[in-house]
């Protein structure tokens, strides 16, 4: 099968930060203006995922305090991903936040819900359904089948929902690899940017993605 190579520049720490900043601006713009777009960002390790997603969650929670809305964060592991992220967010928020159950933080009229693949919410009513932003962190550890079965049905009618995927390139098949291929294929057809690369590539200044050429 013919291969299509999509190139994204990787040159220095400043260009990596530029990718992160552009990703953040794109997600925020889609959330605020209810565009319902999807984005993905590749990083070098999972600590960077926690840093980027944590800052974005805090900003949007404060921004949405008056207008309201629900954001959700899906992560593979409860103990290693969800609990540290929840604790970090509560430390960073100003006074006034409230806990609603074990995995929801409320600030004003805005909610941030935390979901784990290995320990799903026992009760997941309408108040836990995201209508502003859905983040899938460490999406390279999430299978596409799990996402399509457990998450997609709950957000299928949310046409204004922004979805952001965070991951590390592993070479294996995963939700993140599938989303990345879809996003880069869209870009190769002239669509706006959906994929951002903030991973350090030690071999060269460019990172190559081999994709099947569209028919």
Secondary structure elements and their pairing?
Layout: E1 3-9, H1 13-32, E2 38-43, H2 46-63, E3 69-75, H3 78-92, E4 98-99, E5 104-107, E6 110-116, E7 133-136, H4 144-155, E8 162-167, H5 175-188, E9 195-198, E10 206-212
Parallel strand pairs: 2-8, 2-9, 3-6, 3-7, 7-8
Antiparallel strand pairs: 1-10, 4-5, 5-6
Helix pairs in contact: 2-3
Task: Describe this structure as you would to a colleague.
The chain has helices at residues 13-32, 46-63, 78-92, 144-155, 175-188; strands at residues 3-9, 38-43, 69-75, 98-99, 104-107, 110-116, 133-136, 162-167, 195-198, 206-212. 37% of the residues lie in helices and 25% in strands. The strands form two sheets. An eight-stranded mixed β-sheet has the order 4-5-6-3-7-8-2-9. A two-stranded antiparallel sheet has the order 1-10. The protein has 215 residues and is of the alpha/beta class. The protein is built from five helices and ten strands, in the order βαβαβαββββαβαββ. Helix 4 links the parallel strand 7 (133-136) and strand 8. The protein starts with a strand and ends with a strand. The chain has a single domain (10-203), classed as P-loop containing nucleotide triphosphate hydrolases (Rossmann fold, 3-Layer(aba) Sandwich), CATH 3.40.50.300.
């Amino acid at each position: 099968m013919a291969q299509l190579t999509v190139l994204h520049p990787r040159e220095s720490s400043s260009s990596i930060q530029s990718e992160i900043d552009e990703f953040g601006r794109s997600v925020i713009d889609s959330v605020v203006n209810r565009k319902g777009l999807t984005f993905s960002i590749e990083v070098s390790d999972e600590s960077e995922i926690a840093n980027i997603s944590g800052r974005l969650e805090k900003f949007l929670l404060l921004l949405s305090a008056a207008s309201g809305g629900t954001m959700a964060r899906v992560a593979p592991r409860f103990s290693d991903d969800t609990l540290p992220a929840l604790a970090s967010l509560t430390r960073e928020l100003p006074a006034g936040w409230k806990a609603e159950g074990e995995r929801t933080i409320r600030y004003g009229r805005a909610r941030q819900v935390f979901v784990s693949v290995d320990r799903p919410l026992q009760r997941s009513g309408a108040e836990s359904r995201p209508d502003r932003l859905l983040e899938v962190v460490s999406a390279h550890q999430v299978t596409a089948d799990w996402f399509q079965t457990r998450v997609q049905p709950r957000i299928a009618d949310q046409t204004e929902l922004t979805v952001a995927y965070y991951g590390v390139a592993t070479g294996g098949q995963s939700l993140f690899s599938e989303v990345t291929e879809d996003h880069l294929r869209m870009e190769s057809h002239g669509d706006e940017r959906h994929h951002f690369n903030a991973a350090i590539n030690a071999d060269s200044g460019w990172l190559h993605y081999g994709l099947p050429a569209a028919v």
